[in-house]
Amino acid sequence: MRFRRTVLPAIAMAGAAAFVLAGCASGGSEGTAGGGSTEGFPVSIETAFGTTEIDAKPENVAAVAWGNQDVALALGVVPVGMPFITYADDNGDGILPWAQDALDELGGETPVLYDEVDGINFEQVADTAPDVVLAANSGLSDEDYTTLSEIAPTIAYPSIPWFTTWREATTMNGAALGLADEADELVTETEQTIADAAAAHPELAGKTFAYLWVDPSDTSTNYVYLSGDARVSFLHELGLEDSEGVKQLATENDGAFFATVSAENFDILADADIIINYGGAGTLEAMQADPLLGALPAVQNGAVAIIDESQPMASAFSTPTVLSIAWGLDDYSALLAAAAAKVQ
After folding, report:
1. How buried is residue 126: exposed, middle or buried, by Cβ count under 10 Å (0-12/13-18/19+)?
2. Up-side HSE of residue 98: CA atoms within 13 Å toward CB?
3. Spatial separation of the C-alpha atoms in residues 201 and 61, rounded to whole Å
4. What is the mean pLDDT of the chain?
5. pLDDT tens-digit map of 84-105
6. Which residues pair with 308 in a beta bridge?
7. How far apart are the C-alpha atoms of 25 and 83, rounded to whole Å?
8. What pLDDT is attached to residue 39?
9. Nearest 10 degrees: Cα torsion 241, 246, 248, 250
10. Would you tell me the crossing angle of helices 97-106 and 322-340 to the nearest 10 degrees?
């Protein structure tokens, strides 16, 4: 796989067993995508909406929602359509840098970029005439799934909307493309990348954290991301642990990927060693100036990692994928380590 060697230069093969695909049965075919081959097909993939059957190797692959196109690209498949990214795309072209790198490497036409500002754009998806729709990481409703399935077999999330891990997205989407073995290999390689980053920053191990979306200039609406969320579960792989306050919020909001917290209840986050928050220049200073946020020990100590929403890193680790992890993990882990160094 020429592409992976270029984009994932630091990845070495791991000795650990490959991730076992949860809820997915595959014929385990090998080879490149396209061509309509029936070798290894049909494959049956279990999703939250039942079993999706794919009879032949897809030729026209559509990706919707979050990060699903990255799996196809990492496996050497250029989608016929994928979302136009509006979040943290610093050049405004709708394609995040790791995906652009992959497209450049693979060549071929730039996919149709679906406008998903108001949700899945069914008309645009249908116009690309896909024979599979990758949506393993998504929040499809029953109606969304039904509509997409009328266009092409659709790979939805395995159990809970927006709870799909990067592993599940890789293995489910990979199996749909007839590239289950290659997907397992990607998972193993990515696990080694994460392990290398954790080893390079031992100061992260055992630190507790709370991952927020709080605007210190207006604390009327505040969110705390919970353990089922992909960005949070990814941090666990780097050795970080949920604070007791976050665990309590997860118990009180079972099945949700975030909790809302009023400003007067910010003290539930007081036991977090590290705070992670979206923002930009001046956000930490504004947090420290706020009488409630500024009372949190992590904020007082400056043990805060600010994720700049104008930059692709915000998207890379809001929705970690096999491509975005390889692209940005060095910088991301360094940002977290800088916050960890200020824990008192």
Report:
1. middle
2. 30
3. 38
4. 89
5. 999 899 899 999 999 999 999 9
6. 279
7. 27
8. 80
9. -90
10. 150
pTM (whole model) above 0.90: no
What DSSP element (H or E) covers 134?
A: strand 132-134
- Residues constituting the chain: 344
Give the residue from 76, 311, 40 showing the smallest Cα distance to 178. Answer: 40
Phi and psi (nearest 5°) for 92? 75, 15
Q: How far apart are CA 219 and CA 213, in angstroms?
A: 10
Q: Residue-wise over 131-145: b if at least 16 C-beta within 10 A, else e?
A: bbbbbbbbbbeeebb
Evaluate whether 312 touches 89 at the Cβ level (below 8 Å). yes
Give backbone dihedrals phi and psi of 101, rounded to 5 degrees, phi first. Answer: -55, -45
Cα–Cα distance for residue pair 251/297, rounded to 1 Å: 23
Residues 274-327 have pLDDT tens digits of 999 999 999 999 999 999 999 999 999 999 999 998 999 999 999 999 999 999
